[in-house]
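Bug report (template v2)

What were you trying to do?
Predict the complex of my protein with iron/sulfur cluster.

What happened?
Run completed; filing so the output is reviewed.

Input:
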Amino acid sequence: MSGNPFAFFKPEIVYIRPEAKEYPLARELESRFKHMGIPVRTGIPVVDKTAGAAESYRIAKKTLVISVRRGLSFQSCKPSAHYQLPLATGCPALCEYCYLQTTLGPRPYLKVYVNVEEILAKAGEYITRRAPEVTVFEGAATSDPVPMEPLTHTLGKAVAFFAGSEHGRFRFVTKFHGLEWLAGLEHRDHTEVRVSLNTRRVIRRFEKGASSLAHRIGAARDVLRWGYPLGLMIAPVIISEDWQGEYRDLLHEAGRALGPARGISFEIVTHRYTARARELIQSRCPDHGLPLDGRDRKFKVGQFGYGKYVYDAPTMEQVDGFFRTEIPKTFIEPVIRYIV
Ligand code: SF4
């Protein structure tokens, strides 16, 4: 991917909020896109109500909005961190189960915030308020921010900011490779980079537009080589006939590539969906193939007060037991943060 800032995301149309033009990054991006012949408009995207749900979704995934993050209070972000760090929203990939289907609702386009210095200054206030407790920020709560990083460099600025913060920590997760911009940045172990893996079958079937497994494992190896704390996320775990064999193979393949590294963290998230997500997925991705028929599921009301369909208790127990047994067989002193 090296050298091509549009390797993962090249918008077909760009909108700039008027207030964003006060910021140098917005002006730089505007001139760059215009130079490439990409239409740039002032304002916000207008939804074409004549296009069907699938086509509107496709168009949105090729639309970039350059904006300013106002109202700088941060949302909480359990179980991954204390707070979300709002640097961007959206993602160019088309993973059919993606939680952003509902989080972003009718606005699934990509948005980047150009007032990153103000956002980081606000993070500093949150850190000061909780010090000497450590405060952890999640940079990928509402996006996969990596595809846009070569254009905005905001993750890099966040890594540098947290390197200089005594009580602040940063983490983000991605399903993309192309992390070369991390090499050489000072991080002081204050940024944990997590790479989201899944079985080849799940990636091929459900994660369209994201990086291949080999590329992601290569990116994880690079993260270790550059001295960052590494996390591996497996999300979503999708139960199939031979799920244990497939996820065992995945752990072995990653383990072989990553070698004898100690202390890699793991986050395991089973497939779940809300009724709203099912409705959106069925309209936007009619050929989705996801298990959404409620079999082997129970309805559970989550921490945010809405219900979701999760695997039933016996299945969850099997998943929990499987990963708690298999991960330590392959990795040295792994830190299993959660299995949900
Ligand atoms: S890579 Fe992550 S954020 Fe992007 S579509 Fe897939 S699941 Fe959603």
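What did the reviewer find?
The pocket of iron/sulfur cluster is lined by residues 91, 93, 95, 98, 100, 144, 175, 207, 210 (CB under 6 Å). The first strand starts at residue 13 and ends at 16.
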